[in-house]
Request: fold
Amino acid sequence: MIKLDLDLEQVNDLCSICDTVPFDVNVTAGRLMVDGRSVMGVMGLCGRVVDIIPITSDQSAVADFFSRIQPLGAYYED
Reply:
């Protein structure tokens, strides 16, 4: 699972990256789930460690997506 300790400075960058991929991305924190393209939704999750869930079975696309969000502080956790 991809995790990110989300702060306000990362919201626009994360949403911009999610907006460019050809698949949906869900951002979750506990029971809350928002669309990764929604700036207002993702902003509501600031200050939490969130799970970033790419909705695709294409593992190469997931790897490319992860390489793009890794500079924001994203990491894998099982």
The chain has one domain: 2-76. The CA atoms of residues 40 and 56 lie 23 Å apart. Residues 8-20 form the longest helix (13 residues). The two ends are 6 Å apart (CA to CA).
